[in-house]
Amino acid sequence: MVPGERLVSSRAKKVTTHVLQEMKRSGEKIAMLTAYDYSLARLVDGAGVDVILVGDSASNVMAGNDTTVPITLDHMIYHAQCVVNAVDRALVVVDMPFGSYQGDSKLALKSAIRIMKESGGHAVKIEGGTEIVDSIKRILTAGIPVMGHLGLTPQSIYKFGTYSVRAKEEEEAGKLMEDARALQDAGCFSIVFEKIPADLAKRVSESLDIPTIGIGAGADCDGQVLVLHDMLGITKDFSPRFLRRYADLGEAVDGAVKGYIEDVRKGDFPSEEESY
Ligand code: KIV
Asked: Is this model's pTM higher than 0.90 or not?
């Protein structure tokens, strides 16, 4: 296939997990972005992204927390409802927040059902490897599609201690491969690889039947994901090497707000035409 050519996803009226599987099979790359609110999700979906992730990065981007740990299930459901209201085509995947699934597969199922029922999302994403396989299997018994997340898993930041690249050493790389296989065998429809070496992501992606989505994991994953506010240049204090900025909305907003303040102060706004 010619790079950049869109076959499967442009034909798909609505993107489903089956469409993503078909995209992997045909070599068409999957484009995924985060969104947390109606207005931006409407733009992102209209532009043709395949998957919208209601990420628990909302904790950082929307709420200003240092980590993803504080965001709650109720918060995630609220953000997901806003996104679902906006979306016509993309698959909406909702992050299961910290504390809503770890160590208790019954709790995991209950949390996933709440997400699906109350938000209208299409799938859930869950961080971790073999240790959460029971939860994944139980969620799948309710017919809820599950996306995995390996490598840098931000909900475990207090265990890792840093946001640096994961699985650089052989032992951790081996564990990641084992985890990826376990998630596929458990029934995940896709896995996110965050901040791992490109050659490891390539090897694992090639060895799996399900699509992999990379963030800081090189070009050979089956798709890519970025945090919307980072790639739009709204967040300024986060510049990891993997981040490509496609716009500088931070500057644009600053200029617009300063222009407005100036016009108000000068008495230039509103004009006669803008008045009744
Ligand atoms: O929460 C999030 O935005 C994520 C992506 C970084 C994959 O999990």
From this structure: yes
